[in-house]
Amino acid sequence: MPIQIVRNDITKMKVDAIVNAANPSLLGGGGVDGCIHRAAGPELLEACKTLGGCPTGSAKMTLGYRLPCKYVIHAVGPRWQGGHKNEEALLTSCYERALQLAKEAGCETVAFPLISSGIYGYPKDRALGVAMDTISHFLLENDMTVYLVVFDKSAYRISGKLFANIAEYIDDRYAESHTDSRRRLSSMDFQEEPGVLLAMSASAPEKSLAEMVEQLDESFSEMLLRKIDESGMTDAQCYKKANIDRKLFSKIRSDKLYKPSKPTVLAFAIALELSLEETKDMLMKAGFALSHASKFDIIVEYFIQRGNYNIFEINEALFAFDQSLLGA
User: What pTM did the predictor assign?
Assistant: First the structure.
């Protein structure tokens, strides 16, 4: 998938390039910077000494040396000063320059830390927003897989208000689901209208298994391609907006009976900005349903109900609640 949020040690990532949250001297420091220098060995520091430092909002590249990656991109983010010192523009520029260097070096996979969110004090929810917005914008025009690496859960945070709103929505739907389940199991439901189901079954015309198989409904793949045509989007625009890899989309397009995963179906529903009913229909084509017994389903429903189809914001929320992400 083009963007993945993962919990890992960035020095262990087997990618083409990792990004170091460096200081302007590029001579090492604390946090992620220190970890990367220790893992890369003294050769990294010697290489950095030849670069002459780096201004805030920019980035420079070296080899990875003893790291499992080919390159290290040293990106210098801004210190947080209340948000009135051009911090957002500088942080955006920092990500843009790092991505451009990766592209120029022919990198297909890149891993970023959450730049400036450590000792530089940039609020984590805002830092995350800048990272996701900048990376997703870049990926609309470029093919690359980008990992946003979080070392531990405490280092990752969406806005407290959004988290609380989603948590309340989940709690309400869980209670509703459990109440509905108990009501459906009540013996009263089976005592009204006795024999109705039997009568309905008896009146329905019988069909052979062969006839039923021949009358298959529109498949997931067929519905997806129809919806893309109706939306006016190109295939590439749709799968990029869905955070789906081009190779996976090619498989779906070439096989009308392709069986996708549930996150893949929902990713396309979000990319196409389907209504809740249309989303349920697309899920049904793939053999799935939305359930209020699933936090994953409820969180996706929360965003659809509010008309928010930004897949990266949805994935931020899913990650915060320890759920699978949308996409391949």
Answer: 0.77
